[in-house]
Specification:
Blueprint lengths: L1 H30 L4 E6 L6 E7 L5 E7 L4 H30 L12 H7 L3 E5 L2 E2 L6 H4 L5 E4 L2 E7 L3 E6 L13 E5 L7 E7 L24 E3 L18 E6 L10 E4 L28 E8 L3 H4 L2 H7 L5 H4 L1 H14 L4 E7 L1 H14 L2 E7 L4 E7 L3 E6 L2 E2 H7 L4 H7 L3 H9 L3 E9 L6 E8 L7 H22 L5 E6 L7 H8 L1 E2 L19 E2 L4 E3 L8 E3 L2 E3 L2 E6 L3 E6 L5 H4 L17 E7 L1
Parallel strand pairs: 1-7, 14-15, 21-22
Antiparallel strand pairs: 1-2, 2-3, 4-5, 4-6, 6-7, 8-9, 10-11, 10-12, 12-13, 14-30, 15-17, 16-17, 18-20, 19-20, 20-21, 22-28, 23-24, 25-28, 26-27, 29-30
Helix pairs in contact: 8-9, 13-14
Length: about 600
């Protein structure tokens, strides 16, 4: 722990020192008449390069040129732009003088052909103090550190500097909940970038308190913003920030240099938070990332927005939940805080909207050291995240249950049994459920690998036989991955299985077999009955046991979610306690203003045997 704190303090010190040095250098260069910047973006996979610079008249030029074009043509085009800029500036100057002399004085003559020719700027490109020949191709001419001269103005060429291609702040920000900016960088690394947070100054704030990025962005008046003192990527607003907007100033870096800074202002001011949430007490058990020998695992159905926002959900399923608390912007704040507070190594999520994965979950969890993969189902899908300091993604082996059953020889025997029951076969093939399988490799011991599976089985209460067949397909596929492709690697199988411990699906998983006379084979009546016996290879256990419920809504509560583990290779070190019944029912049921889903996350620490 002390090493971790020391490392963070050291990194913070480096960032502050670098930022101070860069500001001091910028001030010195400005005083000494430093060169302007000419930004060149040149990527081998693209036919054109881009060139961006500001002319002396204040106009900003963005040019696209073929990489295979001789640089002389590009310089000629720059000269033409400079002449146009000079002409515009001269015309504006003439107009001003004419207005000044409108009382009767002689008007100034405009720039004639001779003066225009005299004003044509010299445009040259130099590299290591030697002029670059005009027949050199653009791809070779525009080198990092080259100097572009346009008339009397010199520009330092920066080829592929770090740059933000995307920078966004969330629309809805609440006090006490972390704010995760969505970042996309090119030629850079968020860990090497600089961040500084500001907030609006309250009316009547003391002049000494008010500062801000006015020197960095003239469009933002210094009287508007004040520093928060936070120079980290993530900012947690306090109650003192309620009613104020936030501003984030970012400078992209890559460990060697920094690129052009960008700023973003939050659309809405900070709102008040809900107070204590159901997961706050659980976070007391997960304050730190586990040691290397442990794997903290989370399985959580986060309730897809596509389902939460239906009229049926608002009026029938969750009538007790305040409408604003069903809104995605609100729930995302709670989901992000809950997940990041678990400090997990592996997170398996169900009912993940595609945009929620890319715009919310991935930025939030990436800021805390996790990387994720997504598998779409129809309107939503599955997401698996892993801690990058502990694991790397070796391979993915996702399947759709009905497609695999139809076409993969691995399931030939099961398919032969199912075709004997045409009505059941039709129903099984209509389901869109998928299985996400990721093979992870330990970063510190490449001989250690693990198979992480994630699924969301068919939901209907009368679909017991469908879930049995889906589970049979899943276990056969997982065996293929963990035994044939990567012999002997352990398995963690997470998901919302829509099955209580009394069902045939759970019996099948735990006992390794299911008899053909089990009642779940006729779960939807005699017409769809499909009696068959099934077996599987694994020795599995529910790591979190059989809680009274993991799903608690107005009309139902029961245990539907599990983290199944391979008993031959893994054991349970710790199960993080679920919220108390009092916490769950404070607002009658789930979801609520203090809990973002109708399910409860399962969290446990697993240990290699």
């Amino acid at each position: 722990m002390w090493r971790l704190l020391g490392a963070r303090a050291a990194l913070r010190g480096v960032r502050i020192a670098v930022e101070r040095r860069s500001r001091a250098a910028a001030a010195t260069e400005t005083a000494a008449g430093a060169m302007e910047r000419a930004i060149v973006r040149c990527v081998p996979s693209e036919p054109k390069l881009s060139l961006s610079f500001a002319l002396a008249d204040g106009s900003h030029k963005n040019m696209q040129r073929d990489q295979s074009e001789p640089v002389g043509r590009a310089l000629s085009r720059i000269a033409t732009n400079a002449i146009k800029g000079h002409a515009k500036a001269a015309t504006a100057k003439k107009s001003r003088k004419n207005r000044q002399n409108s009382s009767g004085g002689a008007a100034c003559a405009g720039p004639g052909p001779e003066s225009a020719a005299a004003c044509e700027p010299v445009v040259k490109l130099y590299y290591r103090e030697e002029a670059v020949a005009e027949d050199v191709l653009n791809v070779d001419a525009w080198q990092d550190g080259a100097v572009l001269q346009i008339g009397d103005v010199k520009y330092k060429v920066e080829r592929n500097p770090p740059a933000f291609t995307e920078l966004q702040l969330p629309r809805y920000i609440m006090a006490g909940f972390p704010v995760f900016p969505k970042l996309s960088l090119e030629f850079g690394d968020p860990a090497c970038s600089l961040f500084r947070w500001y907030k609006e100054a309250k009316p009547g704030a003391a002049e000494a308190e008010v500062g801000g990025p006015s020197s960095l962005s003239p469009s933002l008046p210094s009287s508007t913003w004040m520093e928060t003192g936070v120079d980290e990527r993530v900012y947690i607003p306090s109650n003192a920030d309620i009613g104020l907007r936030l501003l984030l100033h970012c400078t992209p870096g890559n460990g060697q240099r920094f690129g052009p800074s960008r700023e973003r202002v939050s659309v809405c001011p900070v709102e008040a938070g809900p107070g204590t949430c159901t997961f706050d007490h659980r976070h007391l058990y997960t304050k730190k990332v586990t040691e290397d020998a442990l794997i903290r695992t989370v399985s959580y159905n986060i309730l897809a927005d596509t389902y939460a926002q239906t009229e049926f959900s608002r009026t029938v399923l969750y009538p007790y939940c305040a409408p604003y608390a069903l809104g995605l912007d609100y729930r995302q704040n709670l989901i992000q805080k809950e997940l990041t507070g678990y400090n997990a190594d592996v997170i398996c999520l169900q009912e993940v909207d595609r945009d929620v994965f890319s715009d919310s979950l991935a930025p939030a969890l990436e800021a805390f050291g996790l990387e994720g993969v997504f598998r779409i189902k129809q309107h939503e899908g599955l997401a698996t995240f892993y801690r990058k300091s502990k694991f790397s993604l070796l391979s993915q082996h996702d399947i759709s249950f009905h497609e695999a059953l139809k076409s993969d020889p691995l399931h030939k025997e099961l398919l032969e049994k199912l075709v004997l029951y045409p009505w059941a076969q039709v129903r099984v093939f209509q389901r869109s459920s998928v299985l996400q399988v990721s093979v992870l490799q330990c970063t510190k011991d490449s001989s250690k690998k693990i198979c992480v599976a994630n699924t969301h089985l068919y939901w209907h209460p009368k679909g017991g036989y469908i879930r049995l067949i889906q589970m049979a397909v899943a276990l056969a596929h997982i065996r293929h991955v963990s035994c044939d492709l990567y012999p002997g690697i352990p398995v963690i199988f997470c998901g919302d299985f829509n099955s209580t411990p009394s069902t045939g699906m759970y019996h099948f998983v735990i006992n390794g077999s299911i008899p053909e006379e089990h009642e779940d084979w006729s779960s939807n009546g005699e017409e769809e009955r499909c009696n068959m016996s099934l077996t599987h290879f694994f020795k599995l256990k529910s790591a979190c046991g059989e809680p009274a419920y993991t799903n608690y809504v107005g009309g139902f509560h029961g245990c539907l979610d599990y983290i199944f583990i391979d008993l031959n290779a893994l054991e349970v070190e710790q199960v993080i306690p679920l919220p108390s019944h009092e916490e769950v029912t404070t607002h009658q049921a789930l979801p609520s203003v203090s809990h973002p889903s109708d399910h409860i996350a399962l969290v446990c620490d697993l240990k290699w045997k």
